[in-house]
Amino acid sequence: MTTMIVWSEEVRKRIPDLHLTLGIVKNVKVGPSTKRNQEIYNCIVSMIRENYDLENLKNDPVIRAYRDFYWHYLKIDPTKVRPAGEALIRRILSGKSVPSISNVVDAYNAASIETKISLGAYDYDLLKFPLHVRFAKSGEKFKPIGKSETQLAGKELVVADEEKIICLYPHRDSEKTKVDSNTRNVLILGYGVPNLDSEVVFNAVKIACNYILEVAGGNIERIEKYVI
């Protein structure tokens, strides 16, 4: 089986406990959010509101692992740039709804809210494998979804294919590889960090893939862990 994730030596040395889970769902039909999307979302929202509030959320071990990773390894203040799962949960706990994008995007967002794991979804057919987990080069360009293209400082942790950066690990995805109405095959990445069990991330990706199947059809080709 072809290796799909390659870790740079610098990442191996500086962040020795990093890990990723990769899931591939093929032959999906991307479209508007469905009734099933809403049912999944409503159930998860009820669970979140029953178990968390804005004050105690930061004490959850998964949230804490991401926050510590931001502080210690990325040098990012996680109260200003939120981990993806935490950002979605905070919207809910603040009484706001999570914007509906499409059946597929809403499905993986629901899995991220449920598990608190930072997940990313990408158009598989726009990627040139293997993917490389590395530090950005100074001046390298990146265009986040919905934002202007920017030049990176050269210290950011990124995931890139053979041609381009597809995300800033683990919180911002690229406009160039996003899931849209033309997408037929989806790559899900579950972003692991130190002090976070790889099985927890694996389970989050599995949940995301299964939710996608429920709302957009298709078939799961593989779900596998990559650990430094």
Concise overview:
This protein has 228 residues and is an alpha+beta fold.
Supply database-style keywords:
228 residues; Phenylalanyl-tRNA Synthetase, Chain B, domain 3
Poorly predicted ranges: none
What is the highest CATH level, the class? Alpha Beta
Structural class: alpha+beta
Strand order across the biggest sheet? 1-4-7-8-9
Which architecture per CATH?
Answer: 3-Layer(bba) Sandwich
| Helical coverage, percent range | 25-40%
In the CATH hierarchy, the third-tier topology is known as: Phenylalanyl-tRNA Synthetase, Chain B, domain 3
Q: β content, as a range?
A: 15-25%
Number of helices: 6
SSE series: EHEHHHHEEEEEEEEHE
> How many strands, which pairing sense, and closed or not: the largest β-sheet?
5 strands, mixed
Q: What does the radius of gyration come to?
A: 17 Å
Oligomer: single chain
β-strand number: 11
CATH superfamily: Phenylalanyl-trna Synthetase, Chain B, domain 3
Please explain how this structure is put together:
This protein is of the alpha+beta class and 228 residues long. It has one domain (5-227): Phenylalanyl-tRNA Synthetase, Chain B, domain 3 (3-Layer(bba) Sandwich). The chain has 6 helices and 11 strands. The chain has helices at 9-14, 35-51, 61-74, 84-93, 103-115, 198-216, and strands spanning 5-7, 19-26, 119-123, 131-135, 141-142, 150-151, 157-160, 165-168, 172-173, 186-192, 219-227. The strands form 3 sheets. Strands 1-4-7-8-9 form a 5-stranded mixed beta sheet. A 4-stranded antiparallel beta sheet has the order 3-10-2-11, covered by helices on one side. Strands 5-6 form a two-stranded antiparallel sheet. A hairpin with a 7-residue loop joins β5 (141-142) and β6. The longest helix has 19 residues, at 198-216. The protein is globular, with a radius of gyration of 17 Å. The two termini are 18 Å apart.
